[in-house]
Hints:
By secondary structure, the chain is of the alpha+beta class. It has 2 domains: 3-119 and 251-261, Diaminopimelate Epimerase, Chain A, domain 1, CATH 3.10.310; 126-245, Diaminopimelate Epimerase, Chain A, domain 1 (Roll). It is 18% helix and 46% strand. The chain contains 4 helices and 17 strands. The chain has helices at 32-39, 77-90, 153-161, 200-214; strands at 3-12, 15-21, 49-54, 62-67, 96-101, 104-111, 114-118, 126-128, 131-135, 139-144, 172-179, 182-189, 194-196, 218-226, 229-238, 241-250, 252-261. The strands form 2 sheets. Strands 5, 6, 7, 8, 9, 10, 11, 12, 13, 14, 15 and 16 form a 12-stranded mixed β-sheet that branches. It has a 5-stranded mixed β-sheet with strand order 4-3-2-1-17. The N and C termini lie close together (5 Å).
Amino acid sequence: MIKEIQFYKYQGAGNDFILIDNRNDDFDPKNHDLIEKLCHRRFGIGADGLMLLQKHNNYDFQMVYYNADGQEGSMCGNGGRCIVAFARDLGVIQQNTDFLAVDGTHDASISANEVKLGMIDVREYHKDYEAYVLQTGSPHYVQFVTGLETYPVYLNGSSIRNNETYGPKGINVNFVEKEEGGYFVRTFERGVEDETYACGTGAVASAMAVALSEGLEGDLEIPIRVLGGQLKISFHKAGDVFTQVYLSGPAVQVFNGKVKIS
């Protein structure tokens, strides 16, 4: 049986997503092959991931996220910001929200196209030689490098993501370079298996690695530039503990349409 599904395309700093209002359970989330096909940039709509906005009795909505490979993913920060904009555009929320994601409850606020998203607290990390490894809703490896504009992100990121330590589950790999006014970050994402224009949880992990490496303390705000634009990360750091963590940046609808599925 063939039916039409309404979809929406959003992007947050170049991280792009297919969003579907699934409050009536019209879309089958178990059809991983379909999700992978819809995310394909040649044979589908094209996206870094797909999200379902679901009903939830105790929250404004529930976010269910799938990677471009069709498998359910861990928390996606830019996806979280995009689904907040989507919920506002649908009339589900106004300016403030509390919603449920795979890693727990998130609070967020939206003004025009700017979304400020609350992230989980981070209370531990470890080092892999000179790199920092943190769990910010998704697992991240953060390495400081020089010459990031021309750095082989795909080659080195794929190698780390698939090495004996992190494969087969994998890890997201971030490369960071200090620049005037902030930091530049490029990320190889598992599930997409490629470099993306932005990664929200990666930007958060990178900002935390900056604070750890530079011995910063207290209420901090760290600007992060990604290929798709500018993000801002704020948190309170006390020793190795990060609380009051927020990821801020743009989230906008690109287009919407209908797709036939079977």
